[in-house]
Specification:
Radius of gyration: 20 Å
Strand order of the largest sheet: 4-3-5-6-7-8-9
Number of helices: 5
CATH architecture of the largest domain: 3-Layer(aba) Sandwich
CATH topology of the largest domain: Glutaredoxin
Order of helices and strands: HEEHEHEHEEHEEE
Number of domains: 2
């Protein structure tokens, strides 16, 4: 009966694999991690800060597909971005809208927590937000939007 020793060996291997740390992360944590979904980004072909934000997202592990378009008005309208939450680029990831220079850690948190919102925004173009690093840093909030409601998701001071 080779089957019982094989199953015992497989079970022991799984137990050891989940108990050993991997670069400071437990095997159990590695087993729970899922690959990040692909992010679609619409941006102006002439906006340099959008490209820097995309670089920030890729450095954080996101797979990004960027599309250059001259007028983002229709994309923002179709995505449901309120005028007061608008910025220079719009992204869609796993059913959520990401508007503007939202930090990668907030997008990851959004995907993990899955709140009942349309998306996240950093309205305008705030100095010091990802992609807008220019030596100055202004305080800013990442806000949720959807169903006529908005709240602060995270603050950077």
């Amino acid at each position: 009966m080779l089957r019982i020793p094989f199953l015992a060996a497989a079970a022991a291997t799984m137990l050891v694999a989940t108990a050993l740390p991997h670069n400071g992360i437990s095997g159990a944590a590695l087993a729970e991690e899922k690959p990040l979904p692909v992010m679609q980004v619409w941006k102006s072909p002439t906006c340099g800060c959008c490209g820097k934000w995309i670089d920030h997202m890729r450095a954080a592990g996101f797979s990004v597909q960027a599309r250059d378009i001259d007028d983002l008005t229709m994309v923002k309208k179709l995505a449901g971005v309120p005028d007061d939450k608008a910025s220079c680029h719009t992204a869609i990831i796993d059913g959520y809208v990401i508007e503007g220079h939202v930090p990668a850690q907030d997008v990851k948190r959004l995907l993990k927590e899955r709140p009942q919102v349309a998306g996240l925004s950093v309205p305008g173009m705030v100095s010091g937000s990802p992609g807008m690093e220019n030596g100055r840093t202004e305080p800013y909030d990442v806000v949720t939007f959807g169903k006529g409601q908005s709240r602060v998701f995270s603050s950077y001071r």
